Amino acid sequence: MKMTPVASTTADEEDRGAIGLSVIVPAYNEEDRLAPTLKAIRAHLQDGPAAWELIVVDDGSTDGTAAVVEAAADEEPRVRLLRTPANRGKGHAVRTGVLASRGHRVLVTDADLATPIEELALLERRMDEGAPAAVGSRALPGSRIAVRQHALREVMGRIGGGLIRAAAVPGIRDTQCGFKLFDGDKARTAFAGSRLDGWAFDVEILRFFQQQGWEVAEVPVRWAHQPGSKVRPNAYPRVLADLVRVRWHTYRRTASPARFAIPALFLIFSAFLYDGLWSDPAGRYLIDSNHDQQQWEWFFAATADNVVHLRNPLSSDFQNFPLGVNLMANTAMLGLSIPLTPLTLALGPQFTWAVVLTGGLAATAWAWYRLLARRFTRSRWAAALGGGFCAFAPPVISHGNAHPNFAVLFMFPLIIDRLLRLCEGRRIKRDGVVLGLFLAYQVFLGEEALLLAVTGLLLFTLGYAAASPHVAAAVARPLLTGLAIAALVSVPLVLGPVAWQFYGPQSYRSVLHGQTGNHPMAFLEFATRSLAGDGPIAASLSLNPTEENAFFGWPLVAFTVALVVHMWNRPAVRALGFTALAAAVLSLGQNIPLPGTDKTLPGPWRLLAEAPLYESVIESRMAMVCVPAVGILLALACDRLAVRRARSERESSRRVIGVAALAAALLPLLPTPFRTVERAPTPAFFADGTWREYVRPGHALVPVPLPSPTETAALGWQIDTGLGFPFPGGYFNGPWGPERDGFAGSPPRPTSELLRKVHETGEVPDIGEPQRRAFRQDLDFWHADTLVLTDQRFTAALRTAVIRLTGDEPRRTGGTWVWDVRADR
């Protein structure tokens, strides 16, 4: 319902436009801050060329705010006071003032004048150029922040700003800066139809301007946080709630509740799981990711740097300098890291990491939900349950700690939908082209996940052909034709990048990982992050918390078997059951251990272990193919329970038993929030820019010990310096030895090995002329300018080793020990 201000909201038409500028100041209990603000505004406008008015709206203050305004009005009649009998919110107060204004232009500014009134000239300049609105911004290059907010408030503001841009006002980076100048008539039109009384009124008004096609110019301004802000932590949820109201008002006539409720639930649940990360994206770390989070943040940062500097996005030499890293041969997810470059540049790769994980899980659930609702179920909530399982099943949650390429899987439901369209044989050319584009894009999201999905689809095809050969024969021709068209579209798009991956600089043949099959008992136990999970048991049956690729729990395994038996008459169910079983057996690896014994059986993975592409796959990940197969089965079962009505007491009892069994199978698997810890602070040597004195362009900084898959702190330091320097070593996959096998980290050199051993043991070996000669050769190879040692385990031993190698004592600066080796080369 539209709120009507207590004060008059109209003015005589003859007075409209006679006043050049109306300044609106909302005020609630601003007795202490308002007088200087009014004085500053009056002083600035006093000598201006246009007539003006200053309207203060007292929003039900309980202090002396009104008296302050009345005193100012006694001195200057162009100051007006409007009062509301009760506190209704900032949006209501601004609406009251704007609708009572008479100015050709209307400026809305906060009572604390966090943006100085002198910045008005910048906004007027943009409106003189034709923009109907000019809004101050704290988020643009050129914005000057004199006093910053609390770090948590800034993080919350960034998160909220990102959501606001995505949901309501794309293109406007700062909607909440309280300094906005509008065309008067357009502002009064916008506010007359506004509904929000709270903090999010800005979003509603700016969205109205965009919907009308009226340009909103964003202008960088000066801004300083003022003590005594009325924005409290509970304001953020209210703003988000108002944001939902804005979107809901737009679509309420055409949208069913489920259309928005289900994806909203997915997003809320995903945000709940990553709550610890969102509390401070730049300061929190997913502890179960080991060192992978640091690696992924570096991938996002390096990709963004390549894009902004128009460099090859498939490579970077900031790690493993001077040889570099083949990003296409690593899990850089260029399909997301490239389009998310603006987000990375604006808010940092840590924020991008949180967005990719949170949004990726929610988007995956939503994509599966849409597929299931369109193709498999009549009940939307049955489709939601199946979609939620596909995104939040234990194997996916395990990878949600550290491997977004195995957690962000929203493309696969889209690919499956296109394959089903091809089977219908209606628009083969169009669907083949679209499928080809989808497959090409997935290559840049995750090739190993695509390989596993293709394997799962082949298993399903075999199962369905056996269950219903006549149907399989009927769809074979249009399907194969569409696949051929998809290949013609996708192969040219990915040929260059894939050639770079396998034959370009720092490419490798296959990844060395040994035999990593699942233990059979892993399917019956519960994952670490499941509600019924047992960390020690899961650890004994998996590589680490990021590779718990089975762990469906015995209740779900039993329930799935019962489902397949109960719905055996349906060919799709038989095919899904076969797919899940075959994938589970393949995931057991080349040698299947017999529980309770020390014996093994040969596994069918032996048939694939040496096959091209499969040789690099961690075989336990084949169990992830079970997730969508089981998810679709669950959706079918839930749909039957939701849609079929009980016609007898016996059927009613069966339905109750079915619901209870479904709950017993799924409740133990509910994921719990990911654990986070506080990051170690970046040494001042890097944070305050001291490193610039020691590293020349085109030369390297050498951390001691060298960065490696187990020592990744230097990647964070490099990110915090804006990728200001390269370093040797690092955490990536690259070639190893004459066979160019894939290996994590850079090949060892004499100096890197010496420092690694000192770091691991705390013992300094004998260092003579051979070691120093090798050290100088390594410095030449690395183009090293300086060596940096931070405080860590065995710092004294590492310092002694480097002193003996260089023959020089280090300099203590910025919390680090620094050896300048430029003069030695």
TrEMBL record:
<keyword id="KW-0256">Endoplasmic reticulum</keyword>
<feature type="transmembrane region" description="Helical">
    <location>
        <begin position="351"/>
        <end position="369"/>
    </location>
</feature>
<keyword id="KW-0328">Glycosyltransferase</keyword>
<dbReference type="InterPro" id="IPR001173">
    <property type="entry name" value="Glyco_trans_2-like"/>
</dbReference>
<feature type="transmembrane region" description="Helical">
    <location>
        <begin position="551"/>
        <end position="568"/>
    </location>
</feature>
<feature type="domain" description="Glycosyltransferase 2-like">
    <location>
        <begin position="22"/>
        <end position="172"/>
    </location>
</feature>
<dbReference type="InterPro" id="IPR035518">
    <property type="entry name" value="DPG_synthase"/>
</dbReference>
<feature type="transmembrane region" description="Helical">
    <location>
        <begin position="655"/>
        <end position="674"/>
    </location>
</feature>
<keyword id="KW-0808">Transferase</keyword>
<comment type="pathway">
    <text>Protein modification; protein glycosylation.</text>
</comment>
<feature type="transmembrane region" description="Helical">
    <location>
        <begin position="575"/>
        <end position="592"/>
    </location>
</feature>
<protein>
    <recommendedName>
        <fullName>dolichyl-phosphate beta-glucosyltransferase</fullName>
        <ecNumber>2.4.1.117</ecNumber>
    </recommendedName>
</protein>
<keyword id="KW-1133">Transmembrane helix</keyword>
<dbReference type="InterPro" id="IPR029044">
    <property type="entry name" value="Nucleotide-diphossugar_trans"/>
</dbReference>
<feature type="transmembrane region" description="Helical">
    <location>
        <begin position="381"/>
        <end position="397"/>
    </location>
</feature>
<feature type="transmembrane region" description="Helical">
    <location>
        <begin position="479"/>
        <end position="503"/>
    </location>
</feature>
<feature type="transmembrane region" description="Helical">
    <location>
        <begin position="257"/>
        <end position="274"/>
    </location>
</feature>
<keyword id="KW-0812">Transmembrane</keyword>
<comment type="similarity">
    <text>Belongs to the glycosyltransferase 2 family.</text>
</comment>
<keyword id="KW-0472">Membrane</keyword>
<feature type="transmembrane region" description="Helical">
    <location>
        <begin position="450"/>
        <end position="467"/>
    </location>
</feature>
<keyword id="KW-0735">Signal-anchor</keyword>
<feature type="transmembrane region" description="Helical">
    <location>
        <begin position="622"/>
        <end position="643"/>
    </location>
</feature>
<dbReference type="GO" id="GO:0016757">
    <property type="term" value="F:glycosyltransferase activity"/>
</dbReference>
<dbReference type="Pfam" id="PF00535">
    <property type="entry name" value="Glycos_transf_2"/>
</dbReference>
